[in-house]
Design goal:
Number of domains: 1
Helix content: under 10%
Distance between the termini: 5 Å
Oligomer: single chain
Largest sheet: 4 strands, antiparallel
Amino acid sequence: MYRTPGYLDAAGRGIECPTCHTVYFLEGDKNWDRMYHRLGEDGKRHWMLLCICGEQVSFQKYDVALYGTRSTALKLGYAVEGQ
């Protein structure tokens, strides 16, 4: 996820793992097996991301951000730090 314009040829909405900084994109169906929701103790639904590093990240709609990346990473559904 370079900030240099020469490396950016795609962008997608995603969630970043705070531990390994892998970004999982919401577009397409590549990450449906990694994202799920559950009913919390407060009675609200909480979205969870299961990262490849083993971290479970809780997120809400406002946590989704736009990330610049390479088109190949967007097609894969995720970008490892540095892509």
